[in-house]
Amino acid sequence: MGERLVSGECLVWRCPAGPLPAPLHALLDDAEQARARNLGHDAARTRFVTGRVMARLLAARYADTPPRQVVFTSTCRHCTGPHGRLEVHTGAGVLHLSVSHSAERILVAIARDTVCGVDIERVALRGDRIPVSALSPVERRVLADLPQPRRLAAFIRYWARKEAILKATGDGLVLSPADLTVSAPDASARLLSWENRPPPHVSVHLSDLAVGDDYRAALATLGRPLSIVERDVDPLAEASHL
């Protein structure tokens, strides 16, 4: 029998983004394998494969089914394409999953009957300047008041929180992250306001995650706050239980 995922709880697995042995690639379905082949960069392909394998292992544990038989639905709410929020429908309800990866780290979150979105970002500059256009006017003022050495990490904190929310709602970057205002980087994570927010207006609950000094990460859940359990997981060790 699979383990029971308690209602009101969200489990977050942390794992390295390194390549997995070829036999584990066989856990992916045909569509996932095709998507992996179409990714142009080896590093991006590795992160995608490892993230999806971990999502399958996690879903299989709580759906009480072999990983290869896990059926994900992932319909985009904007275009109906197969790149929306991950769900697994079981006889005991719906498992909601979210996967994020950055550089050498991967996060996979799962909750029963509560939508979740997770995001992890490495504290590193992409391009030659911080893209403050992603921030609301309030957030820009907070960032400008910080000492220069603290601004990049603060921006990454803002970005991880916003993307976690947009992944949970299923909107992604179709919507402007600048329309969201979240709490200051050194304050407890909260969504303060959302301009031009599309319906449905479900309550958003936000938490920062522990991922070390070189990364920032956040988890958003819709409708109610969840108790968060974070675990470091070795994909090979987890697969050995199959």
Which helices and strands, and how do they pair?
Elements: E1 9-16, H1 22-25, H2 30-38, H3 42-63, E2 86-90, E3 93-102, E4 105-112, E5 116-122, H4 137-145, H5 148-169, E6 180-182, E7 191-194, E8 204-208, E9 215-222, E10 227-232, H6 235-239
Our measurement of the CA-to-CA distance between the termini, rounded to an integer number of angstroms, reads: 12 Å
The CATH superfamily of the largest domain turns out to be: 4'-phosphopantetheinyl transferase domain
**Computed CA radius of gyration, to the nearest angstrom:** 18 Å
Series of secondary-structure elements, N-terminal to C-terminal: EHHHEEEEHHEEEEEH
Which structural class is indicated by helix and strand composition?
alpha+beta
CATH architecture grouping of the largest domain: Alpha-Beta Complex
Oligomer class: single chain
Shape verdict: globular
User: What fraction of the residues are assigned to beta strands by DSSP?
Assistant: 25-35%
Segments where pLDDT lies below 50 for 5+ residues? none
Helical residues, percent: 25-40%
How many distinct domains? 2
Number of strands: 10
